[in-house]
Amino acid sequence: MAEKDPDICSHKFPSASQVWEELRELWGMAFPITAMNCLVFVRAAVSVLFLGRLGSLELAGGALSIGFTNITGYSVLMGLASGLEPVCSQAFGNKNYDLLSLSLQRMVLILLLAVIPISLLWINLQSIMVFMGQDKAITAMAATYCLYSLPDLLTNTVLQPLRVFLRSQKVTKPMMYCSLIAVAFHVPLNVVLVVVMGLGVPGVAVASVLTNMNMAVLMAGYVWWGWRKGEMRWTFGIGDLCSGIGPLLKLAVPSCLAICLEWWWYEIVTVMAGYLPNPTLAVAATGILIQTTSMMYTVPLALCGCVSARVGNELGCGKPYKAKLAAMVALGCAFVIGIINVTWTVILRERWAGLFTKDELVKALVASVMPIMGICELGNCPQTTGCGILRGTARPAVGARINLGSFYFVGTPVAVGLAFWLKVGFPGLWFGLLSAQVACAVSILYVVVARTDWEAESLNARMLTGLEMGECRDKRQGHEKDEEESKGLLINGGDGNSNSIDEFI
């Protein structure tokens, strides 16, 4: 049984000093990650800006390609990489540094295999879009952007796992600085490739590829520097890599589904908006609202990743009640962020759309839906944070099931029913999102707050990562343990892996 923290017990509320210390720990990680997410958002906005300068056809084609690549590529790679979170965070808390480096290498190999079918989809974007009835001129432009973005798939096979690898070790400021340096060169790259060299849409795509490549190289360079200084241990072994891929996939696939099911639903909203009576107006308003939600999502996304690392770290080092404290503090912060989002969306609803368009009809439509979107964020922030907690406890499949039921069996029928059957129109789509977020938040909060046995999760973390360090301590204390029980599930790779790993998902 994991040793209880003497200051935090299940039947006793934590003290104000303990909560404050956890807040400092959590936001010490989350602020740099939020800044990094904002920089990534700025990079995407710059790309759209340069596409807009090229012309309406280039902008439409680029937007179509960005949506397609997000759905079929980036969301999948980011989702799979998030499967590293429970393993790396718990291994770091457990001081099982060999498992950290091996898991990173395994995930890179998994993503390399995943980009093969994704590449085939990207190469055939034009034929797929034409088959679906899209405009041929726009589709041809989108296919060009997509083709020149292909190298970005390889870059993300390293970049996405590196982000999880470093965040799990509380290394967040270097990630922010690496992103800052890379994004600082993004505008000059666009100027040179698009304006000076006149490459047009291919130039915008290549600039994005090079910016991501710079991020990956800088982060990999930081890891190499840490290894050279002895601050990071590194283990490599072909046998260990192959034996651990299966168990890691059992965490990566549900993590991917949990992220993609929500991400894809926003794209479905855009498609449904195109079938409303005034599709041009509805799609334009949807674009503004989704860009707004993406901006607001940067903070919950950072909180999600950091609480996953905090919970995993504490469970890995045998402190279940500190893990519970980290989870509860993060959920409290998520509710505060949600309230802030509701407040500003209500106050600025009449002015916000003016930053994106001069069309009065679009501005009026956005203003009518902004408060609904704000209330959605009141559910989205705790829901996103709850998904991070579930990943930190190695239960991503629970989050995937909740997202599937909430968005597709609650949100979609409500959105379709209100928007089309009851003729509510555009606001009906966002009431559908609101119902999905409410169902999702309530379900995840129930699982995290009421149904989580933190002592059991600590034991699961012990089994998941293995306790070579703990085994040595037990031997020094005279408690001999069976060697096979002390081996990590993901290092062993034996027949016991499949049976035991099922308990975590």
Automatic annotation (TrEMBL):
Gene Ontology BP, a term: xenobiotic detoxification by transmembrane export across the plasma membrane
Bilayer disposition of the protein: Multi-pass membrane protein
UniProt KW keywords: Membrane, Transmembrane, Transmembrane helix
Transmembrane segments: 29-51, 63-84, 104-123, 177-199, 205-227, 325-349, 402-422, 428-449
Principal location listed in the UniProt entry: membrane
Stored PANTHER family: MULTIDRUG RESISTANCE PROTEIN
Family: Belongs to the multi antimicrobial extrusion (MATE) (TC 2.A.66.1) family.
Protein name: Protein DETOXIFICATION
Organism (species): Malus baccata
